[in-house]
Amino acid sequence: MSIVESFGAATSEVLKNDYVVVRYCEADSLLIVDWQRQVEIEERKKVFLWGNQFSTDNHIKNWFINDEEIYIITPEERKWISNTWIKLVAEAGVRKVAVYVPEYFYNTLLTLTDFTQEAQDVYKQLGVTEHEVFTDYNMALTWLRSAQEV
């Protein structure tokens, strides 16, 4: 079952290429980034910057990033995400970012612990966006839907 199938809400595909499918769920103000394979930093930047502009234009409040196909996040990518992208997301008014990493990617989870904590700290400093990593995508979707902004 895919993320979208389990989501249960109407989504529309807004971007698709050989490495990502991005869907938009207007009802939940949600952008779903579903990586199709391991990506290079320029591919990640391109999608994240595109998604950030799409979020700004459509007043999107939530992001779901499916990292099931991502095995490595390079130090260069981490630096860019922490120093550039997080600030852009906060400026765009995104309230929640959920990242899904399957539990069976244990080594990836261990590697991401420090990176996740760093990202959460930067988000807290900016005071706008919450960020969590989940090993169960249904729990991630529940979290995204909880406490919707009124």
Keywords:
6-stranded mixed beta sheet; alpha/beta; 5 helices; 150 residues; globular
Could you explain how this protein is built, in words?
There is one protein chain. Mean pLDDT is 83; it is low at 1-5. This protein is α/β, with parallel strands linked by helices and 150 residues long. It is globular and about 35 Å long. Strand 4 (62-66), helix 3 and strand 5 (96-100) form a beta-alpha-beta unit. The chain contains 5 helices and 6 strands, in the order αβββαβαβαβα.
Termini separation comes to: 31 Å
Shape assignment: globular
| Average residue pLDDT | 83
Percent strand: 15-25%
Low-confidence stretches: 1-5
User: How many helices in DSSP terms?
Assistant: 5
Helical residue percent band: 40-55%
The value of Rg in angstroms is 14 Å
Q: Which assembly state applies to the chains in this document?
A: single chain
User: Would you report the number of β strands?
Assistant: 6
The biggest sheet, with number of strands, parallel, antiparallel or mixed sense and barrel status, is: 6 strands, mixed
Query: Helix/strand/pairing class, anyone?
Result: alpha/beta
The main sheet orders its strands as 1-2-3-4-5-6
Order of helices and strands: HEEEHEHEHEH
